[in-house]
Amino acid sequence: MIFLIDGNSFYASCEQVFRPDLRGKPVIVLSNQDGCIVTRSKEAKALGIPDLEPFFKIAGLVKKHGVHVFSSNYALYGELSSRMNLTLRRYAAEVEAYSIDECFVRPLEHLYAKGNLVQYGEILRKAVWKEVRIPVGVGGASTKSLSKLANRAAKKIPQLNGVCVIETETQREWLLRRVPVKDLWGVGSRISARLNQMGILTGWDLANASPKNIRKQFNVCLERTVNELNGISCIDLEELPPNKKQIYCTRSFSSKTSSIEVIQQFTAQYASRAGEKLRKQGYYARTMHVFLQTSPFDDNPISRSATIQLPYPTNDTRILVGHAMECIKKLHLPGHAYSKSGVGLIDIVDGAFHQADMFTPGQSSQSEALMSVMDSINTRFGRGTAFIAASGTEKQFTMKQNYKSPNYLTRWAELPRVTC
DNA sequence: TCTGGGGTCCTAGGACCC
DNA sequence: TCTGGGGTCCTAGGACCC
User: Fold this and answer.
1) Which position among A197, A251, A312, A354 has the lowest Cβ density within 10 Å, counted as fewest Cβ atoms?
2) Which nucleotide is nearest to A337 (CA to C1')?
3) Which of A51-65, A183-197, A216-230, A341-355 has the weakest average pLDDT?
4) CATH class, A247-391 region
5) Whole-number Å distance, CA A93 to C1' C10?
6) pLDDT in tens, A68-89
7) Smallest Cα–Cα separation from A163: which of A151, A175, A177?
8) If one looks up domain A1-164 in CATH, what number appears?
């Protein structure tokens, strides 16, 4: 049995933890740069605010209905997410932190009366609410894909009170018959359009399709989904996330720019961040991918990228940044207003198993030591405390965050205050 | 006035080499 | 002189997730 616990409108609920006055009110949270709407509270959805809509397009609607707007505050969401995990861990045999707002959980059997899995779901829901003040939906079933489906029902059907468990064949069929394929986990808009053309409209249709045929016409992943919908578990619970095969850091600029110096400064920051993630995994990169693009909404958008082999596998920020700078020089064409760049580390190898080349220097122990000091400084005093000069000593543009809430949980100066 | 997220993995197709 | 299978690397873009 696998349960999926998922925070309702997670980012909006996080904001409401320290602003309980906003519970039951329309709240939206914006993406980086205050670009798009990424989370809407139930009340905001009811006002007809669409998901992933550019913020400026609904500014009028927001004003008219007094919608409460927040820039994203990842320090806050990350901290509440880990508190949610800690709570769930006490009630579970295994926990997989699947995303910032979702956990897969294998239940501890002594916590519920035999055969009463709904009771277990209730325990989880109440515990997270009591300890973290985040409302969650709970779905349980024999596979991950079915628990996703149950979780969806838990949120959609008010009578279920936030908990839905698929225990019988009848329940499985009932739910599958009512879910359009596009709402299934692992089926996006493209694949669902093709499935619809083939007459496969609901989860039930897909569950009854031939897995072999699906594999032939689509791919292995969708074949797995078919099996999972039939209760055959193909996707394991992973307590430790598998190591990444690629690590990317990409950002939109806070405003468009044609200046190569500014673009290099931004890109140096992204390369540094990618290096941090790589070292956290304890790996080394052999290949780097750098891209630079104008807005895809421009009349003649351009997007150019370069892939380069690094001289030897490395996770040294100085080397990564140096090569990223060279790439930008090659990619940058004068006269265009660029909106975004990114750095990807691909072809990642585990240091311990890497076969060194006796003719190339390789990463030195000095470099390891320096990176480790830099990482500890930044862990202790905040990201960006120690940085490469190429990132720019004065920030050209800071991220647009006009509606950010305080870092209630991660900065002493911003702790909530109570006046009595 | 202008404004449109971020991350991971996979694959098709072209260029080049043996 | 002309032909041609098979592999690797790179780029671009598709597809999914949150």
Assistant:
1) A197
2) B2
3) A341-355
4) alpha beta
5) 45
6) 999 999 999 999 999 999 999 9
7) A151
8) 3.30.70.270
